[in-house]
Amino acid sequence: MSDGALEIRLLGPDDHALVTQAQGLFDNPPIADQTRAFLASDRDYLWFAILDGQPVGFVSATSVLHPDKLPHLFVNELETRDGFRRRGIATRLMRTVQGYGKAHGLWPIWLAAEGDDAQAIAFYRSLGDMEERGATVFEWE
After folding, report:
1. What is the extent of the structural domain holding 91?
2. Of 22, 30, 33, 81, which has the maximum CB count within 10 A?
3. For the domain that residue 48 is a member of, what is the CATH number?
4. Contact between 8 and 93 (Cβ < 8 Å)
5. What are the pLDDT digits (tens) for 40-99?
């Protein structure tokens, strides 16, 4: 893929309209108040991959604080729009998070992939420099 027109951009408080424009990337339509709060937060991060002015992917992460650990990043979600997958966009997004985390003392970075999501697991394994750990995830719904 030619990177000439692809921009990876960390969004901020003035990017509410861009998130709304990209609503098809998210599982559900963005909620206005949640979007504003997320974009204004100093602990939540949203990077967009923008190709020819259109959002084609994103990664979101949260800085995690704990009394006995230095701050680190948890990757909440990674998504690439249908038709733009397998073009290096997700890899660029994850490498951007990695670089940001290292540069800003938010290390390590961790994430979880659902056990039945073979595509996600294969992608994260393809990055090659992550340690895979066995984990069981529990969720209240």
Report:
1. 6-126
2. 22
3. 3.40.630.30
4. yes
5. 999 999 999 999 989 999 999 999 999 999 999 999 999 999 889 988 999 999 999 999
